Amino acid sequence: MLYINCPHCGMRSQNEFSYGGDASVKRPELNKEVSDQEWDDFVYNRKSLRGKHLELWQHVSGCRQWIKVERDTATHEIFRTFKADEEVA
Amino acid sequence: MTQAFRIENGGLINREKKLSFKFNGKTYFGYEGDTLASALLANGVHLVGRSFKYHRPRGFFGAGVDEPYAVVQLYRNGETEPNIKATEQELFEGLEAKSVNCWPSVNFDIGAINNFLRIFLPAGFYYKTFMWPKSFWYRIYEPFIRKAAGLGVASTKHDNERYEHKYEYCDLLIAGSGPSGLAGAYAAAKNGAKVILAEDKPRFGGSLLTSDVNIGNQSGKDWADGIVAELKTMPNVVVKNRSQIFGYYDHNMLVMSEKVSDHLPSTKKYHPNKRLWYIRAKEVLISSGSIERPIVFGNNDTPGVMLSSAAKEYLKVYGVLVGRKPLVFTNNDSGYETAIEFKKHGVDPVVLDSRENPVSEIIDEAKNLGINIKNSYVVVAAQGYKKVKSADIASISENKKQLGKIENVQCDCICVSGFWTPTIHLASQSGNKTKFKEEIDAFVPGQSKQNEITLGAANGVFSLEETLKTSFTAGSELSKKITENDNKIAIPNVVEKKSSQHDKFWCVPLPKGKNYKRFLDFQNDVAVSDIEIALREGYRSIEHVKRYTTLGMATDQGKTSNLNGLQLVSEIENKVVPAVGHTTFRPPYTPVSIGAIVGREVGKHSKPTRKSPMHSWHEKNNAVFVDAGVWLRPRYYRRGNENLFEGSKREAKNVRTNVGVCDVTTLGKIDIKGPDAAELLNRVYTNAWLKLPVGKARYGVMLREDGIVMDDGTTTRISENHYHMTTTTAQAANVLSHLEYYLQLVWPELNVNVVSTTEQWAGAAIAGPKSRDLLQKLFPNSDVSNEGLPFMGYMEGDLFGVKARIYRISFSGELAYEVNVESDYGNFMWEKIIEVGEEFNIQPYGTEALSTLRIEMGHVAGSELDGRTIPFDNALEGLVSKKKDFIGKRSLQRSAFIAEDRQRIVGVVPLDKQTSIPEGSHLVKDDKAPLPNPKLGHISASCWSVEYDNPFSLAILKDGKNMIGQKLFAMSPLKNKVIPVEIVSSHYVDPKGERVRS
After folding, report:
1. Whole-angstrom Cα distance, residue B525 to residue B517?
2. What is the tens place of the pLDDT at every residue in B538-549?
3. What is the DSSP letter of B153?
4. Confidence (pTM)
5. Would you tell me which residues 41-60 of chain A have a C-beta closer than 8 angstroms to some C-beta of chain B?
6. A3-25+37-83: which CATH topology?
7. Interface predicted TM-score of the whole assembly (ipTM), two decimals
8. Which of B40, B338, B705, B817 lies at a CB distance of 3.0 to 4.6 Å from B308, suitable for a disulfide?
9. Domains in chain B, ordered, with CATH?
10. With an 8 Å Cβ cutoff, is A76 touching chain B?
């Protein structure tokens, strides 16, 4: 069970969180003309990375904040975590 | 019964307390503190089971967790459990156990014929034999294998035992209470660290219980007792025996199974049988010790052949002689320690040492005691079927290839020591890259991946002095990092005998003309010849060899067999052992009861049960409940001998003619506040929200980004910047997360707060033509006329002193209202509605009538919003704004979603107006068409229309828009029904929606 550093609450076990997928996906702006390809990439197409992956988790049984977690998908090592509005450098 | 093999004094058992127990139906006696194994051995019982494949007689090989043979079926307090190691099971009064894998009895086992057929049962036998013909698999091969496989039988009864889960956090977790674990725990505890010390056996001390050493001028055992006693008094230390750490998972999470009650005749009241600990440790000290390795020789599985360390443990801990004419076969000094113990108890052992001329303090002591020692000698084969009667022994050449003349010597047990294998399972599970240590011919932990350190014998260090030194230091250093205390601890003096180098000899060659089975894996009957076959057939990877031959599999996970298997592979392949590598160590280290893993989450506790504030009223009024997600909801309120069909029909009809009340507390409710609340709703819902006036409700549909309908419900504008959203019962949690996602990540600029208020409000839906009359009586001071409170209107009211929210919304299609009060007043509200409603013939109605009413009206619910439909499919395209953008809008342009013949909701009526159509039935054009008969749609919901008194269903049908009036067939292969049907509008009742506005 992973041990995730919630930027709001501190170290908490994985069972307090739910997974939210790739954090690098950006929703196209509202009312913007979007090509089929662009929309498909947003809705469906995801990389299946081996290694460092920036992903979303929600602390559902805690502060209910969505956070970003930088995790190695092969080793489960967690490098850094970020608040939803934090820019990831 | 006398315990003929129990010595008169000594051991750590309680001779004051005699216990009786049964094995294979026969009664024996032992003492408190015995294991089932030690008690049986005290009674001279060596035959305890039959082997897995050949059904060869099996006895005891070890004295603990490494035991490969002595697996029994246990009976305790009316329950039975398979797969119990007799060497781990503590004796209690009235214990009953039986041998497994033998029929009709362990003494006379029909399956033993396999032993004589063994030439036909080599490695890969099953793979090669049970392949053809294919049709034989289910009927013949699989049942045969199932019957032959497994050790013991799982109970089919409900398990009445209780199992608990516990979560714990600590600074330092220590696995194993031998010298290393005790030293590490003590040093860390003295620095104030929060320490958990776990020992799988009942007694603490590990090797100190049986070794002849001195620590700080005390015996090793006394020193251990002193340390444990002190640790137990410290508030920062948890000391647990009978607790096996069996898994090392990510981020220093370890899982431990504590046997709370297995050593007792029955579980004490309020106690669990087992407790599973999830421990998150900052640091882990693995002090799991080592397991003695066998030397491989002919018939080395005969009962009476056992590890020399086990023989010593039976003698020193349990006061039991495993034989009176022991032969000790060793390649190192450990065998001598066992021989010395025998000699001290008046038994004359013979020691065969494969080494030519070893010299050490221990060997000198053995010589001084007059023990008969034969150097450069080996056991070629054990003789005897159900028990060792003698041994064929011979001298061996220096290169270990040539055997001398074979002699036969009488003996009743053979104690074998092939040196020690560090227990690296936990370290390896943590991700540690293990390395091969030449000096000890075994793998030890290497580079750590997580915060763990392995010390003592588990790290291949067999000197007590060094073990204590490194462990005290590690305990100090690790805890200092955490607590910043640095209490110096004097490392005690150690007196131990120095050992000489062991002999890298592990397998006795076969004598000319003999074809003895030489077993590597005792639990799975894997012999040297099986590995040879696997390699000859081209298996190279050790993982493949393992799976082909089953080497190292099953419940002992190869604790005694792995290294010898690797030695053999490397020898045949002409490689070094590290080049062959070891198979992956996976949790659990030892078998764990499924009950312990499941914990308390069984039966109705497998998920939470949520009840509305009116639940007790429903109970008192004969509600028949149904699970709705985690909620319990009344399905109908039974009157007299009514069944579900009759009851729900009566309730639905009463709504259509008079007035009914339904508990709708379970609906999800979300409070939305902030200046941008309307903008959020406008982006989340498909329809327009910016112009909704205060005091008005609106029905809305929300989509996922892929265009599929996610949920529907009404949202009401309570005040300028305050909205009350309702969701379906099932989607409440998902919708909240969905809103939070967009507010926190996608549109953080929106100034809105959302919070669940599902539990804060109790809700009652009042529906039927007389509902306004009732409402007026409930709220005499409010104007609830059609003008005062129009359809989709909202107002606050005073319900006999309780503040209430009144929404004029309808799910039933009738004139209807929903009244909400704070949850604590829910029951009060309900009782008032029933009381005041009496004059209008009010009846409560349950979910079944609720469904009937909405199906007749063509209102969609979960069975249509099933994660596969878009707004059009549900005839909701009128709610899809063309002017504004919203979540999922772009997806609605997908070609499949705008296809001419897109599926759509329709009504379905059986032609005979009698036969109910099973939900899930497929709609087809031709009921006689050959399979696969093209499916045009499916029945999503069915009811008995109370309006027309005939069956009515909803369906999602291809090209549904143009199918009205068509005749099709509803086919349900499950119910074996073919029903001719007509397709009608989904709005079966009141298609213009006049009633809700009346």
Report:
1. 10
2. 998 888 988 888
3. -
4. 0.90
5. 42-44, 56, 58, 60
6. Folate-binding fold (3.30.2270)
7. 0.98
8. B338
9. 1-158 (3.10.20.440), 163-290+423-486 (3.50.50.60), 294-418+499-517 (3.50.50.60), 518-579 (1.10.10.1100), 668-680+716-845 (3.30.1360.120), 898-992 (2.40.30.110)
10. yes
